[in-house]
Amino acid sequence: MTLKPTFQDMNVYTDILPCRTAVRGIQRNGGTVGLVPTMGAIHEGHVSLIRAAKARCSHVAVTIFVNPTQFAPTDDFTAYPRPLEADLDSCKRAGVDLVFTPTVETMYPGARLESRTSTNVHVSGLTDVLCGPRRPGHFDGVATIVAKLFGILPADAVFFGEKDYQQLAVIRQMVRDLNIPIEIVGCPTVREPDGLAMSSRNAYLTSAQRTQATCLSRALFDAAERIRGGERNIAAIVDGIREGIVSAGPAQIEYVDVVDSNTLDLLSIVDRPARICLAVRIGSCRLIDNVGVDAPPTPR
Ligand code: PAF
User: Atom of ligand 1 at shortest distance to CA of 70?
Assistant: First the structure.
């Protein structure tokens, strides 16, 4: 049996029906589909997700859609980079079989975006911390578009980066709660050689801000090291991170929090596997990053 019955080359779909038919065709022929949802501006972080999908599934599908409902009116929806030709080229070079790149009208037909869709997915609890309160409606927009994409591309597994750790947790919860038959695979954050987490939004940074932004991962790695060294007091850890960021240059810290890796409950001492998460604005660029501390520290 040929493993790639449907595609001689990479197929690009803008319409829902042929895309769903293509995915189902692969599966009917015994193949499996790994899905990598993106908003485009494909970088090495996305490519690592594509590689993970290729290692696990016979076919890889990528979606490219800048989803308006996850942006607030003051966010960067209009400015968000949309280098479609370069993205398709990156997908092709990475060995992607199928790309779905719909228009806003296809995904939200006739909808007035300010009123969003009639049906929205809201995942409670996990969205009450970290980015949730700072970006009202953001995770509803994410959960809703991801649920829609799962309906259009009924893949076997879907791959998300841990860089958006809260997003990954929200989607895992949504899939559990709604019994969506798709495996969620979290993949490690891909970093630049100097530690900065890869993100399409890094393109907004000036060269001085780009240098300054390395303070985020440095502060997170230092904090993780302190925890591994026995520090349990989160106030002390958070103070250290804030100091590391502030001393690197002008920045607006939205939050630095340490949460339970699974529930995202805020912690005040590190007594279980934890995630140190932060969101910081440098210039007009909002950056998020996080690191995991999986082993509970030994007491000092
Ligand atoms: O992580 C992203 O790029 C987006 O939030 C996603 C999951 C593609 C939904 O628009």
Answer: 10
